[in-house]
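Cross-check.
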Amino acid sequence: MSEVKAFRLDAVDKVTGRAKYGADYYDPHMLYAKVCWAPAPHCRINKIDISEAKAIPGVYGIVTRKDITGPNLTGVFTVFDRPVLVGEGEECKFVQDAIALVAADTEEIAMEAVRKIRVDYTELHGVHTAEQALEEHCEPCVERSVQRGDMAKGWAQAAVTVEEDYYIPLGEHSYIEPEGGYACIDESGVIKVYCGTQDQTMNQRSICRALDYPFSKVHYHVPYVGGGFGGKHLLTVQPYLVLLCAVLQRSVHLTWTREESIAFSCKKQGTFGRIKLGLDKDGKICALEGHIDGAGGAYLANSGDNCNGVIAGMAGPYLAPNVNLTGSMYYTTSPEQGAFRSVGAMDGCTVFETLLTEAADKLGMDQLEVRKRNFLRTKDEVEHCSEPCFIRMNSPRWPIDELMDMCLKEAGKLPPPKPGKHYGRGYSAAKAAYATRNTDWHSGSPVQMHMFMDGSITVHTGFEELGQGVTGVATRICAQAMDTDEDKITVLRSDTHVTPPAGALGFSQATVSVGNSIIRAANLMKETLCKKAQTYLETDEELTFKGYAFYDKNGKCVLDWEEFAKYIFAQVDYLSVVARDRGDKETAIEYGVTPIACVCDVEVDDETGEVKILQIIHAHDSGKVVHEPSARGQVLGATVMSQGCYLMEEFKMRDGYPETPSLAQYLIPTAMDIPEKNTALFLEGNGADDCPFGAKGLGEHPMYTTGAAISGAIYDAIKKPMLHSVGKIMTIPKGAKMKNISMISAALQTADGTGEVNL
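Predicted model, tokenized:
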């Protein structure tokens, strides 16, 4: 095989500007669309008057609920509860509900028309926060729990207990590409949609179901996607584009501004609660108990999975024999909860690790030693402590100690103290899940492989290129599986009319799912080739295909590609196979778990309370790294993203209205905030047998541990947990104060840990 020339096959397109995203598609006759949003967080629409808006020159059409003949409900997987448009006599449940769509010759005209739409409405009582839901004794929309062991026995064994209230706010995905797209209609009545997503198949199905359109008439093409992080699973502009195009019979362009994206997109889960941890005299975890609550948003969306993830992530990679964790989410006049990189587990892990650090200090033991005494060690322990997810340990061993040692070796020693500065080191570990089997209707990506007469190959996959490098991964795996050069492989982006139906891209599953499907497809392709070669050679002897030639059982080449291609060229049937990686079960997602360790060093200014991250080091049980620069980029990017979640970011709302509508108010990390040393280490060789060449998922994994390590380092520096309030102090019905693990908490906290700041 020739030397690989490039792995990131999209790199040239992106740096030269040739790469086209949803908002880049254009035709000279298209209309520009804007959305008229709900007039209040919770209200009943009495009348919608579009007459004044429709009379504006340049307005081509205005679409309302009356134009929808279908059920008008979209959603996630099997739950359809969000209306495409809210009509007269119906309720808006948050300010992100749409009541009309305007299409005009320019964006400016469309925006003017939106302002001229007159809406008569009646305001209704709104439940704006989870705290209010608790005070008003609202029923949860979601309840989840993890329960095992004997809690009374566990607390009786506790030599020390730590009990804390915590608060983690809503967060924004902050992908680089705001939501936007283009739709047109061809001569056969097929609506072609060009829009970024993480779930093309479900997006198409949800749109067609809501609008009562035939699936064959909605052709969804996914261009380059400028990041997703779970936020582009849900529908955004797509149903509006299809509806406008169908009603007006014109091509339409709709793109949200950054402000609209922040205000109207789904959010990372926000939760609060009281968690209690007990350690025995030897530092062993003997009891973990608590309850969390959170705002589920106006519609169900991912609230269930997020709640599940938070409580599942709280026990970390530790043997906690006695656990009673429960969670409740409530309908509120706030954005839907979307999936967010690690789906809640990052929050649970951070809360638990913070308590574990505090408990170790209270017991008078080194925090790292306490962790090592409680690490999961065996397959049975890992799987027992993996509730409530359907996950298993599918690797030969569980090298958590080795990973932590790798981090410590790389980290070295803390810098010597300086006057007015406090230094601390934090440790964290996690068991991070990734999807290993495409056994559920919403998981995994089948692959269609086509081989041409010149030996070149196309791979069709329904998974999207989000910037994570899945195209390069698929190319490399296909080349290895087919024993050919990478420049012979072309991976085509997802398209509902071309690529096989695929599930939601997430769960750190792209490499595993696509890779396994490609390997299976390659094996089927080689079987197909060998059967055709047998026919040509008029033999029943078993053949092997390798390096574009056919060999008999003695290893003798009996047919080369040039001769075979001449034979195949004359055949009507072509070389195409479809394969999907399947597990033993047919009705449930299977997850693998892999350990990850993290070490963080911080500097805290005694006078200002400023926290400076000196270094963050991650070590992954990666199994096999397909392409190290891409893997490293995934890890380092996730590290900075997690840093932002816990030290900077907070999506605020007041009475149902956003208070952080732009990046001027919603702060995310910049190049100035990145740690001086941000390092990713990979442990190879512990590959899972059901992963392609042993490669495991790793894209979400640093999200589990970064916040926890930062929190532990701050505690080590100032001997106070990073659980102090920011912004307004909220009150739980029991009278407990809420404490915040968030950006501003560390920045405003005084070095002695006593400063409680009210803004």
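The first strand starts at residue 31 and ends at 37. The chain is about 30% helix and 25% strand. Passed to J.P. for a second look.
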